[in-house]
Recover the amino acids of this structure.
């Protein structure tokens, strides 16, 4: 999660708020399922974020996988 409260998911930037419920430990590369909606400015707003698997699909540099 960026300092401004956004989450980058693929090509989409999703706004997080104090009301966003996050289930699980969020890490770079985590697979997530997000429920959300668009606000008046057409930005994506996360309502609920469920971390499906904290392990990245593609191991990062220096990984033992």
């Amino acid at each position: 999660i960026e300092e401004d409260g956004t989450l980058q998911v693929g090509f989409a930037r999703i706004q997080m708020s104090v009301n966003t419920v996050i289930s699980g430990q969020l890490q770079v590369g985590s697979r997530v399922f997000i429920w959300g909606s668009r606000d008046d400015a057409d930005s994506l707003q996360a309502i609920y974020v469920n971390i499906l698997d904290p392990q990245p699909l593609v191991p990062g540099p220096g990984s033992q996988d």
User: Anything to note?
Assistant: The chain has a mean pLDDT of 83. DSSP finds no helices and five strands in the chain.
